[in-house]
Amino acid sequence: MSVSTATRSVVAAAAGCALVAVLASACNAPGPRGVAGEAQQLRVMVKLVRGSEDAVAIGAEASRIAGVRVSYAAATSAQWHALALHCASAAECDAAIARLRAANNIYQTVEIEGRKARLVS
Amino acid sequence: MRKLLICAAAAAATLVGPLSLQAPSAQSSTIARVIVKYRADSTLLRKQALSVAGQQTLQASALGNRIGIALDAGRAISDRSHVVIGRGMTSQQLAARLAAQSDIEYAVPDERKRIVEVPTDPFYASGPAVGPTSGGPAVGQWYLKPPAAASTAAHTAPAAINAEKAWDITKGSASIVVAVLDTGLRFDHPDLQGGNVLPGYDMISADSPGDFTSANDGNGRDADASDPGDFVTAADSTALGCAESNSSWHGTQTLGLIGATTNNGVGMASVSHGGVKVMPVRVLGKCGGFDSDIAAGVLWAAGIDVPGVPHNANPARVINMSLGGSGPCDAANGQAYIDAFGQANAVGAVVVVAAGNSGGNGVSIPANCPGAIGVTALRHVGDKVGYSDLGPEITISAPGGNCVNTAGGDPCLYPILTLTNKGTTAPVAGAAGAAYTDSFDASLGTSFSAPLVSGTVALMLSVQPSLTPAQVKSKLQSTARPFPTTGGTAGIPTCTTSSTSQDECYCPNPGVGITTLCGAGMLDARAAVASAAGVQAAISLTTTTPTANQAVVLTSTSVAAAGRTIASYQWTILNAGTTGATITGANDGSAVTVTPTAAGSFVIQLVVTDDLGTSSTTTLSVAVVSGVVTPPASTPTGGGGGGGGGGGAIDAGWLVLLLGAVAALAAIAPRERARRVALSGAWRRDRSRVRSDRA
To answer: Which partner for B251 in A43, B57, B183, B631 could form a disulfide, CB atoms 3.0-4.6 Å apart?
Structure first.
């Protein structure tokens, strides 16, 4: 292998890695950094009727019911889980939440997740 | 004849039966000192041709004869009051016996008082010297001191929480853990090296998969609860949606108030005197934290498992949350907190939450959620500070720091001094980075009111770990001091239920038809801890089936607070009903024997007093069934069955025993009647004392 070939290989490999990293990032990061067509990210907390700790299954089921891509965010307990809805618009997120709330055999509660801050004056 | 037989048998049983009366366990070498004051009409005050000392010697002697204990007269206090000295029992026990005498106005233990211990931490008395841009406050940790008129010279203020006097009762138990849900902790602060800081946990998960902007530590949930800083850059501000800022070291500030090492000659003191364990649970990063991480932090802190997180081997009894946001706490917006607080409460964890600093609006979420002890902030004089939110969900108020309207750049006069770090973004490591907030870098907010309550609750649980969250809340409220109605800035109004924001205002005190907005009053740590330390009276019925004419044994199962002992017992039949029940033998032991003479039910009362002089009262209703007389030597023929059966032949042995018993009963009857009269007066006084303790 010549030096130039080796260099090209390294560059190609690096470019490949970078591409993979960019794609992975695009797939994972929601909202403004999310994939094309997912301009909105909305976090919700769901309370399952039947508790589960299977993050993959919880995310997949929510995605199926909501009709938008859903990524699993965090567990609070076996019943409560945080999910991120990836939507094209605010209206699409509203509709997705309505579908989740309608599935009351799966979800006892669906609430929009907020952030809390330290309380200094 | 049947009645006589039953009575005689009861008397015989009393005389010959192995009664399990337990005398007070005090050693005979114990010396009791009690201050007595005679009622003005006491026969013991009859003038003799003697000096005051001579008369009081006679009075002590006569008093001793009455209760069967040799008493000496001690120091005279007035013509109707002096010290009496006895032996073989504690001062509390002797005081209880003397208080039962009808012509004694009061009898209280003559106790030694110690000089109140003030911690050696230099900033407790006064902060660093005030310079042009740093130092102070001159009043030091004013908020922990006994309340007094506002005075910068005396370093006192009306809203101070009286922690100093709570430390006379307890300096905290290492078995109590306080979790601080906040930004994490600078573990290397020199004032946190007392061995009471637990590792805790970092509960901040990714903002989105692979994105740890909020966490600022490059990863998600893990066992490292150290605070890497929560500074917000311009890029962070755009991404997360909050204003640019330097790192706050907020978790170190709030945890320091609860658990900084105390009496170590370094820096500051903490509410718990450094005696309880403190545990950081990191839930806030840049621009705060998600509800899911915060609720998970609540559960984990309380010892409830969170998926994917190791079990917390040090469950917290107190959870401090100096955080919040706007909105109601209801099924649509706060159910996760409602559930988490409910689960935490159910396992015994008390959840304390700051009211919020939106400038006098409604209480923030989650302080407004059921299961939370919400805390509003007070100015040093005791009125609501302008920034603090308020509302009917609040339990109690505590100082939050205020500046007394100084001109811009002037030092803040009454901030809350606490721990911090010098780093503006990343922390400055080690002692070089350790710092304290002061009159210029002032800690102000309901964030600092809540830890004062959390630390107090930790002290309460240190002396009485069995308290439930509901009991803790009740005791905090019942021991709070009333809000002042004067002393605030001239012209300020009383706080109202208005939906508009309310700046400085006077908090309404509880009353009929009044909606409290700042809780029950101003936190008083001493009173709250003393209330928690009180004994809990309880009675156990030892006899399985109480039966007429048989001895019924009742035993005290009362519990004293940790580190305290029960000093005296006082049993009284409140209502004998149809049973004719009387106490047989001593009524001041840890067990008592009652002999009912007929079926029905009787009510017995037990008053226990601990070595702090705190009393607790309980009553028990005991059902008595009809008895069967069973002769001791032979079985009489006939009879049988319940309902006062018996009869049949009586042999000679039984008859002799019966006659002896009747004679003995006749002999003790007058004495017993007199004793019962005295006891009747005693319990009436005890009940009034208990009522006044509660008032």
So the answer is: B183
Question: In sequence order, which residues have a C-beta less than 8 Å from that of residue B315 and are 6 or more positions away?
Answer: B177, B301, B302, B303, B347, B349
Range of the domain at B6: 2-23+533-651
Q: What pLDDT score was predicted for residue B692?
A: 22
Is there a single domain that holds both residue B547 and residue B447? no
Q: Facing residues of B547 across strands?
A: B625
Beta carbons of A120 and B307 less than 8 Å apart:
no
Q: Between chains, do A119 and B322 touch, taking CB under 8 Å as contact?
A: yes
**CA gap B410, A88 in Å, rounded:** 52
- pLDDT tens digits, B609-656: 888 777 888 889 999 999 765 444 433 333 333 333 333 333 344 444
What are the residue ranges of helices labelled H in chain A?
3-28, 55-66, 90-102
Would you say residue B131 lies in a domain? yes
Q: Can you give the CATH number for the domain in which B471 is found? A: 3.40.50.200
Instruction: Name the residue among B122, B118, B94 with its Cα closest to residue B108.
Output: B94
Q: Average pLDDT of chain B? A: 85
Query: pTM of the prediction?
Result: 0.70
Residue ranges of B 210-229 with Cβ closer than 8 A to chain A: 210-211, 221
Of B391, B614, B366, the closest CA to residue B495 belongs to: B391
The mean pLDDT value for A64-80 works out to: 98
Burial class (CB in 10 A: 0-12, 13-18, 19+), B486: exposed
Does B383 reside within a domain?
A: yes
B329 touches chain A (CB under 8 A): no
Q: Does B205 touch chain A (CB under 8 A)?
A: yes
What's at B26, amino acid-wise? A
Do B261 and B204 sit in the same domain of this protein? yes
Report CB contact under 8 Å: A77, B287: no
- Is there a domain that residue B30 lies in? no
The answer on B309 and B175 residing in a single domain is: yes
The shortest CB-CB distance from A119 to any of B289, B293, B445 is to B445
Nearest CB among A76, A109, A119 relative to B447 is that of A119
Considering only alpha carbons, which residue of chain A is nearest residue B306?
A77
Average the pLDDT over B293-314 and give the result. Answer: 98
Distance of CA B656 to the CA centre of its chain: 57
User: B449 with B557, same domain?
Assistant: no
Q: Check the CA dihedral B56-B105-B568-B601 and report its sign.
A: positive
CATH number of the domain residue B642 falls in: 2.60.40.10
Q: List the alpha helices (DSSP H) in B241-328.
A: 250-259, 291-301
Amino acid at B249: W
| H or E element that contains B35 | strand B31-38
Which helix (H) or strand (E) covers residue B654, if one does?
Answer: helix B652-694
User: What is residue B539's three-state secondary structure?
Assistant: strand
Total count of residues recorded for chain A: 121
Closest in A77, A81, A111 to B335, CB measured: A111
Annotation: CATH topology of A37-112:
Alpha-Beta Plaits (3.30.70)
Burial class (CB in 10 A: 0-12, 13-18, 19+), B392: middle
pLDDT over threshold 50, residue B694: no
Does one domain contain both B307 and B420? yes
As for how many domains chain B has, the answer is: 2
Contact B250 A82 (CB under 8 A): no
